[in-house]
Amino acid sequence: MTSQNQAVAMADALTLLLHQQHGIAAAVEELAKWVASQGGSIAAENSLSALADLDLHSQALIDAINTVRVG
Prior knowledge:
Blueprint: H1 3-37, H2 41-70
């Protein structure tokens, strides 16, 4: 496999991870809304805090994808 093929494969894998992360974030957000509606405000706040981490990690994945695709 050439280094260009490896870079494409890496960027594709990172893109798939990013899509999975977006799906997980959407699920956590929906669960946090439900938990809050059931009176679990502290648990909902903790879930929303986890979403902030997912957003941070998503940006790191985006940066890595761009680096691999450009470089």
